[in-house]
Amino acid sequence: MTPAIDLSVKPKVTGFFDPATNTISYVVKDPASSACAIVDSVMDIDYAAGRITYAHADEIIAFVRDHDLHLEWLIETHVHADHLSAAPYIQRHLGGKIGIGRNITLVQDTFGKIFNEGTEFQRDGSQFDRLFDDGDTYQLGDMTCLALHTPGHTPACMTHVMGDAAFVGDTLFMPDGGSARADFPGGDAGQLYDSIQKVLSLPDATRLFMCHDYGPNGRDIRWETTVGEEKAHNIHISGKSRDEFVALRNARDATLAMPKLIIPSLQVNMRGGDLPPADETGKRFLKVPINGI
Question: Which among 199, 233, 228, 241 has a CA at the least distance from the CA of 216?
Fold first, then answer.
């Protein structure tokens, strides 16, 4: 069933592209107030050097301050495997609540074991301020937002509908990019197809905002499309049955290498964007599980 979406509410959406990870972060402003949300922020890492920096997050912080916005939410569409979240860093500067899908607990349980985190690592989602269930609503200023559970890429994936705009995470790519992989632990191509259909049940004029774009065939980077455009032109979905999509997705996933930043990303993002705890000397370390993923 298509949820009630008010297309007359049109938030201002500003995208911030991170070329190191091909991630797009967003500042979403309530059209009736100064309230805003930040969706899928990025913390910079030089993995080879073991160096964390915050240039991308600082750019977003400066934008929020320069436009006199009030940050209410830091939304994570899912536990990202290709970039590190900057949500706690931004929260320390601007406030706001960090929210993610309730099935973060499944991801924490899976990767807590893979990274041998021990009992001190909480697997109850308590690192986040809000855990969203399917169909939950929340306020962004005067705008009522809707969280939809859209698993398949990961068990915790959510699509967030804010007025006429929906932030789909890795559930969909631009029409010429297709869809995201479904072969991570807890992923499922059939679930991904069902989740895509759920997104595409929104009104055709709904604006869709991607978490990633890779400029297929050399085109310029883009991150905004519509439900109607995806239904008509998405190369993995349009005209394909569920079985055809699952076969296509599984075959493609079998050819893909692991994301370059999957090891640090998962360890940080399952903690809500915090780094692993310091040892007795005050130093922090990231683990590399051998043949673990």
Answer: 233
* Cα–Cα separations (whole angstroms), residue 68 to 57, 64, 128, 192: 17, 6, 25, 38
8 Å CB contact between 86 and 252: no
Full DSSP string of 129-167: SEEEPTT-EEEETTEEEEEEE--SSSTT-EEEEETTEEE
Q: How far apart are CA 219 and CA 160, in angstroms?
A: 27
Helix, strand, or coil here: 231? Answer: helix
Structure tokens at 242: 């569920």
What secondary structure letter does DSSP report for 170?
Answer: T
- The CA–CA distances, whole Å, from 261 to 90, 97, 132, 213 equal 21, 25, 26, 17
| Full 3-state SS string of 90-105 | HHHHHCCEEEEECCHH
**Is the per-residue pLDDT at 4 higher than 70?**
no
The answer to pTM > 0.90 is yes
Note the pLDDT tens digit of each residue in 167-225.
Answer: 999 999 999 999 999 998 899 999 999 999 999 999 999 999 999 999 999 999 999 99
